[in-house]
Design brief:
With 284 residues, this protein is an alpha/beta fold. The protein contains 10 helices and 6 strands. Helices cover 41% and strands 12% of the residues. A hairpin with a 5-residue loop joins β5 and β6. The protein binds zinc ion.
């Protein structure tokens, strides 16, 4: 598919932003209000990581999009939010980021079990390629829907793919238990699928019910964008993501919004239907 896309790409942006100006940081961060959930010391680390990320990766604009400094810095900040706890090595082995102006169509060609080839157009907001680039849609006016963050979503897939397919089971940092991760995510995914089958909405976008890999990516969006809702509805998943990303975003959101919780809130029995939608409509 990458070969097909090449026709649409502008030249790679190789001129890196070595030292983003204060007003550039301010503009990029103002578009990402969930960065306020980070502790102050993490904000500085995130900026340093974003600059290093820009030095390693290459941006390509598709369909005539000029990938300017604002777009690059915004994508770098969000991609690096996911690797604050582990550094750039987590994104080793690939360099390309393809940015589309809004959603895009990818022509698909699949052969079914009877040997018949089906061709169709697949509307996309993003795609992470195990063997290559991350592809994301960029929306000048902000995300295409409430809580939808295609950038966090696709880079979460990229982390998941570092040890094989996007199956919702990424490499875990030292000290985390694979057994506990599997238990938390399997139970939550199965619960979400049951609720989805019953037509009951949760705080996660129903797209999370399509595959364990999508559940991880959508839950990661929620972990950064609406962490209090995620912690209330899926406390075990929140706890695993908190250990995985090395952040307590829910406490950050509570601090930012002035909400105070009694100790142990996240161990209680969660509401199944806690309100705001979150996630993405993108394809795997
Ligand atoms: Zn996905």
């Amino acid at each position: 598919m990458f070969d097909t896309l090449k026709r649409w790409l502008n030249h790679a942006r190789k001129n890196k932003i070595a030292t983003p100006a204060p007003e550039l940081w301010a503009r990029a961060e103002a578009r990402l209000p969930f960065l306020d959930f980070l502790p102050e010391e993490a904000r500085a680390r995130l900026r340093a990581l974003a600059v290093a990320f820009l030095g390693e990766k290459e941006f390509y604009g598709a369909r005539g999009l000029r990938v300017d400094d604002d777009i690059m810095l915004s994508i770098a900040l969000q991609a690096c939010l996911l690797i604050l706890g582990r550094g750039l090595a987590a994104y080793r082995g690939w360099v390309g980021i393809i940015v589309y102006p809004g959603d895009f169509i990818v022509p698909r060609r699949v052969m079914d079990e009877a040997g018949i080839v089906h061709e169709y157009d697949d509307p996309m907001l993003g795609e992470a390629r195990a063997d290559g680039p991350v592809i994301v849609a960029w929306f000048d006016g902000g995300p295409p829907g409430p809580g939808i963050n295609v950038i966090l979503h696709e880079f979460a897939h990229k982390l998941d793919m570092a040890n094989g397919s996007a199956d919702g089971f990424p490499n875990l940092p030292p000290g985390m238990s694979r057994r506990q991760w599997a238990a938390a995510f399997t139970a939550a995914y199965e619960r979400l699928c049951r609720l989805d089958d019953a037509g009951i909405e949760t705080i996660l976008d129903p797209y999370a019910a399509t595959h364990p890999g999508e559940f991880f990516a959508v839950a990661s969006e929620a972990f950064f964008e609406t962490p209090l809702s995620l912690r209330a509805a899926f406390p075990a998943v929140y706890a695993q993501l908190s250990a995985y990303y090395g952040l307590d975003t829910a406490e950050g959101e509570a601090r930012t919004s002035g909400i105070r919780f009694a100790t142990g809130t996240d161990t209680g029995n969660p509401p199944e239907n806690a309100g705001d939608g979150n996630g993405g409509e993108m394809k795997p």
